[in-house]
Amino acid sequence: DIQMTQSPASLSASLEEIVTITCQASQDIGNWLAWYQQKPGKSPQLLIYGATSLADGVPSRFSGSRSGTQYSLKISRLQVEDIGIYYCLQAYSAPNTFGAGTKLELK
Amino acid sequence: QIQLVQSGPELKKPGESLKISCKASGYTFTDYAMQWVKQAPGKGLQYMGWINTQTGKPTYADDFKERFVFSLETSASTAYLQINNLKNEDTATYFCARGYYGSHWGQGVMVTVSS
């Protein structure tokens, strides 16, 4: 199975700060990567798919990028409503696999 | 609008079985696969597998090949997750999600297994 190593495990940032979360794939997955945000007690919400495409209704301060087998989610100006846990998912090869998650908190 | 509505919470004893439903609306059910995801209390997301809504063929992740069954009732735009011989470690919230990337998710079903 493809392993997704997500970092950091937790992150504390200030409002308006730039935040970056990364996922390293254990092998080539092309652009078959998605990012999700999950708030406490809620279902995950799709933010980015195809590594770089913004899902419908997601604010433009979220963006995704790829460098080889490393994938990044960037929040350009952190807002209060961005607090939550973020996960990556590789959808290249069954079984799909999630990263372990990054807990984003306000400093 | 697109919705996935899941059945209600479950409290079961070890060894029992359960069947969770995920009813889709707002789109053509057979146009998108349905995925299933487990989230144990306080833990991350665990991919369980998916079912091809056109053919009914399920694909299971390794940890879910033994006691778990994905099925469909296409006429009712509904996907099901059955868990047999429940164990304490099956205590979790189970989500269905539409499509390969999970563009839409159900609200989750909290399953508690306890004697």
Give me some keywords for this one.
heterodimer; A: 107 residues; mainly beta; 11 strands; globular; B: 115 residues; 7-stranded mixed sheet; 4-stranded antiparallel sheet
Question: Could you characterize the architecture of this molecule?
Answer:
The complex is a heterodimer of chains A (107) and B (115). Chain A is mostly beta strands and 107 residues long. Helix content of chain A is 0%, strand content 50%. In chain A, strands 2, 4, 5, 6, 9, 10 and 11 form a 7-stranded mixed β-sheet that branches. In chain A, a hairpin with a 6-residue loop joins strand 9 and strand 10. With 115 residues, chain B is an all-beta fold. Chain B has no helices and 11 strands. In chain B, strands 2, 4, 5, 6, 9, 10 and 11 form a 7-stranded mixed β-sheet that branches. The N and C termini of chain B lie far apart (40 Å). The mean pLDDT of chain B is 97. At the A-B interface, strand 4, strand 5, strand 9 and strand 10 of A face strand 5 and strand 10 of B.
Task: Describe this structure in a few short sentences.
The complex is a heterodimer of chains A (107) and B (115). Chain A is mostly beta strands and 107 residues long. Chain A has strands spanning 4-7, 10-13, 19-25, 33-38, 45-49, 53-54, 62-67, 70-75, 84-90, 97-98, 102-106.
DSSP strand content of chain B: over 45%
Uncertain residue ranges of chain A: none
Percentage of residues in DSSP E strands of chain A = over 45%
Give the low-pLDDT segments of chain B.
none
What does the average pLDDT of chain A come to? 96
Q: What is the chain-wise order of helices and strands of chain B?
A: EEEEEEEEEEE
Q: What's the gyration radius of chain B in Å?
A: 13 Å
The quaternary state of the protein chains shown equals: heterodimer
* Mean of pLDDT of chain B: 97
Work out the helix count of chain B: 0
Shape of chain A: globular
Give the largest interface. A-B, 24 and 23 residues
Give the SSE string of chain A: EEEEEEEEEEE
Cα-to-Cα separation, first versus last residue of chain B: 40 Å
Q: Which structural class best describes the helix and strand composition of chain B?
A: mainly beta
Helix content of chain B: under 10%
Principal-axes geometry of chain B comes out as globular
State the separation between the terminal residues of chain A, measured CA to CA.
36 Å
Give a count of the beta strands of chain A, DSSP E runs of length 2 or more: 11
Tally of individual helices of chain A: 0
What's the β-strand tally of chain B?
11
